[in-house]
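Weekly structure sync, notes
Attendees: PL (lead), two postdocs, one rotation student
Agenda item 3: pending single-chain targets
PL asked that the sequence for the first pending target be pasted directly into the notes so everyone works from the same version. It is reproduced below exactly as submitted, 188 residues in total.
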Amino acid sequence: MNNLKIVIPIFVAVTIVVIIFNLTQNEIVEEQIKEIENSSEIQSMLDKIRKDKLDNDSSDNPYTAKEREWIQSGPFQIDRSEYVLGEKVFINIANLNKNDKGTMIFTKIINSTHVSEYKKISFDGSKPQQNFYLAFNLVKQRGICTVDQLIGDWELRFVGVDGKYNSLEFKIKNQMIPGTEKRFEPVC
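Predicted structure, written out during the meeting:
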């Protein structure tokens, strides 16, 4: 009788351990299957990247990223004076006066008297400063339908600080980062 009191709990414990082990093994197998499925997705992405690189290297005007040159106006900096389609503008704000509040306005220069507004971003020196990237894309809602509307001279204006900071000028060239062609197909 005493042996039975010892054997039954041991049997129950072993049964529970076996069930938990089987459930765990099933989860591991399912995770491995998902990894295999994902690896085929990864492989197709890698193949596309390799193809885009080969296409770029063999083109008449291959893309190479330009060195950063940091164009500056007071505490505001952008990383280059020229960008190609698909590159992002990196905006760095360093040591902004805590009383400076306003708006950065990205505008495309149309001619000597007209600009077209692309994006507004607020800044406030009393809050923690942030650095960020800005991508230029075709946006039907803004009426930016073709790359011709992105290519050309641009200006970053600082409004609300009484002319304290000069505008920063940059250019978007008629060249594209390989592999971004679909992003720049006409949208209107």
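Discussion points:
- The first strand starts at residue 71 and ends at 73.
- The mean pLDDT is 86.
Action: rotation student to compare against the earlier draft before next sync.
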